[in-house]
Structures are given as structure tokens and as C-alpha cells.
């Protein structure tokens, strides 16, 4: 009884401590005026998620994931999950009912949702750190984690994209699995969270697979201690995968394979893997010896491989392997979060420290722990996830969000160890060592170092004006003139697609989404071709406005690609006779041109 009571007490204390830090972050954002609500910083995903929520509240079907105001006529089907839309919509609906204002309700949802996720992520980080490094690691985990998560920006006001909930669910799955030997229900809940984070988006496949493999291998090594954990995790994982499949996939689409979204592919793999793991852990002939356990799990792996290779071979190719070469060259190769470590080393070397330093320090700590011996169950789980996330981050910088988070666990244990040493010694040297450990573990410190290095490397470049001019067209106010005009189809670059849709009633062709191939190619054809080519597209698709943002990086990329093209001509002031400039937008961040109606 005492152990259970102590466990409940630590849960409450960790929850309260995480809440206090989350409230502090909330207060800082409030003091700054929640500026991200009016300046999205170019994050199209947050804006388009808000559009999805609005469409759902306006009556668009639960299974209907079309984005009707982007792409060619009729729109295109997004690959995102309603599992994220639903809670945001619920908050917005409740807040609108309480305040009597739908816009205010939306603002409340945009602030409250990421704040709740920030709190939950901090809590599960603290739980993981407690299991890994003891009670002394909890405070460092919350402080180091809060600093890292806050400055990464995925929990900012307005952060409706799914990366924040994916990180929270993945950290929850890890924390619960670390606690599983002491808590009967933890392994099944860990399986729940692993299935949910997979259902939200395919970006977490590497981490979910790593967790599953770790559960299986721990069972091979220690059947007495891990049998029930493997069984419960497998059942929880398969059960939630089945529940998600029937509740988020239309019955008419149950047989349709989608590699980039939760569909029959992911459901079958999760069901076979989860049920298979639980069965192997439950049946004595399969679990009797380590050889049988390993052989049974290897057979399960072969079955999974055959299922995917035979039934869904298309999902074995590279994620963007079939993308049109023009979109790869002019869009994907310039997506910030899709860059590799090697690309960053060439293009933005200062940023490497901000994204890779703390995970690398944590990996070194884990290697030293392995070298000293005494390797534990907790070490295997944390090290595996940290290593996989680091490798993903080397491939694409987006993976560093997870590696920075996983690094908090060993880093907090490291700090706790030095804090314990400092308590027994009052020497200046010990205090300086402890301070150095804290600084090295704080990701914002490395971010600051990277920023300083960037300034030093670019000291000969012109300094930005630092004023309020929105040269890259990222602020809500910039789109006000467009929003005041009668709804029509707007020809603009993909970076402006989501802002136009969220800040107005217009529709657009282009948006930075890999499923919107036809719409993006049409916009490229118009902007890169001649004025006559653009006119043919405008007339064929009943375009009413052309919107350009001279300072946006995509505009610069397209004009360099086609210096004699339609877009480059507009930037030079060469306006074809079928367009008329909207005079009040001349010189504004967004310059508008009306399409003259044929007489």
C-alpha cells in the first residue's frame, strides 16, 4: 500500500510542478500579447489546421478530409487526422458558447490547446526522468524540457499542427513503459499512446517501431519481468489501432491503402504486430526459452514484412519518391524542416548547434553509461529512442524535435548527479561544474550560441530594418485588403496558400502539401510560363485576382528559375493588358492585380 500511495503522491507532485512551469510559459506569452495569433511566422500547417477546424464546425463531414478551397476545382484530400481537429473544435465550440463570439472562441482554442499539450509533455517528461534518474531528476527535467520545448516553438499560441501532440503522445508512451514494471496498467496505456501518435501522423513511425521492438527484445531477455508488459502493450496497441480505424476511416474507404495517413495499411500492421506480440508472450510453447521467443518474434517480423511487401508494396518506396521533379526542385528542396544535417552544414552551419548539440551530449552520456557497465532496462529504452531520433534528425531536421526531447531524460539525470555532489561540497569548483552542466544541457543556450555565431558570420550582410514591414507576408494584417474583396479564385505562390484561405473567403491553387500536386503544378505553370501562358490558365480556371509577395523566398526562387516568366515580369513592373493593378496595394507586402473581365 505504501508504494502505491507514494506513487500516487509523486504523480500529483510532478503534475503540479509541470502545471506551474506551464502557467509561467502561458504568462510570458500573455505578456507578449499572444503575438503568434496575428503573425503565424510562415507556418502554413497551423493556419490550414484552423481552416479544417472551421470546416468541421461548419458542417463538413467527419470522414470528408477535402480541402475544397485549395487545389483545382473540387479541392484535394488532406492526409491529416480528425483526431487533432476534434479536440480543437470542441474547445473552440465551448469557448464560443461561453463568450458569444466565434472569433474569440477560435482564439481561446489556439491558445489553450498548445498550452495543455505543453503541460502534458512536461509532465510525461518528468515521469520519464523520475523513472530513469530518480526523484532528483524531476526538477531538472521540467526546467530543461520547458526551456527546450518553449524555444522550439511547437507549443506556441496558434500551434495547431500535429507535431506537438505527437511529441506528447510519444513521450507519454516512453514514460509509461519506463514505469510498467511497477504499474500494472502502464504498459497497456503505453500501447494506447503509441497507437494514437501513429494514427495522428506517419512521422512517428520510427519511434513507434522502436518502442515496439524494445518491448519485444526486453521480453526475450527477461520473460519473467516483461511477459505481462509485452502482452498488455501489444493488446493496447492493437486495440486502439482498431478503434481509430473504424472511427476515423470511412467504411467506404476501409479497403483503400494510404501510405501517408492512417488506413488499412497501418491498421493491419498494428493489429498483426500487437496481437502477435501479445500471443507470443501468452503462449508457453512460444515463450518457453530465449531461442523460442526470439524465433517467434522473428517469424512475426517476417509475417509483417510479407504483408507489407505483397499487399502494399507502394509503401516501401521513399516518402516523396513519386513527387513531380519540379515540385521537388522548387518546393521540397526548400522546405526548412525537410533539410538534412549535411545541407544545414553548408547552408546554415550556425543552426546545427541549436538542433543537434543537446542530443549529441545525451548520446555521449549514454555511451559512457554503457561503457561503465550496469546497463539497465531504462537505459535500453531511452538510448534506443534517442539514437533513432538522432538518425532521423540527420536525415531531416524535423526529427531533432524528438531527439531534443528524448535527450532531456539523460541530461536531467546528469544534472541530478552533479546536484547531489554539490550538496556535499561547497567548493567554488564544484559550483562552477554544476553551472556548466546546467548550461550544456539547456537547448536555448546552444540556440543563443548559434544565433551569435550566425550574426558573426554574416556581419558584412545588410542588417534587417527591424521595423513592422511584413516583407515575407506572414502577418494577418497583411491579408486584410485581400480579405475585404469579393470571394474569387486567387493565383498566388504556395507559401501564401494557407494564409489566403484562413484570412479570407477566397480559394487558391497552390499550397505546400504533397497531395496537392495538380494545384501546385498549375500555379508553377502560370508563374514560370509567359504572360500568355498565365492568361490561358487564368481564363480556363476563372481566376479573379493575382497576388504576389515580392519579399517571399518562394517568389525569389521562382524568379531565379524563370527570369523571363510571368511572375518575374510582374516584379519588373511589366503588367499585361488583361490585368489591372489594385492601386491601394501598390508597394504593400502583397501586391494585387485584378483580372479584367472580357467584354
UniProtKB/TrEMBL annotation:
Statement: the UniProt record of this protein carries the keyword Transmembrane: yes
Annotated keywords: Membrane, Transmembrane, Transmembrane helix
Tree of life domain: Bacteria
Entry's transmembrane regions: 111-129, 135-152, 188-221, 233-255, 261-282, 294-312, 352-368, 380-397
Protein name: GtrA family protein
Organism: Mesorhizobium argentiipisi
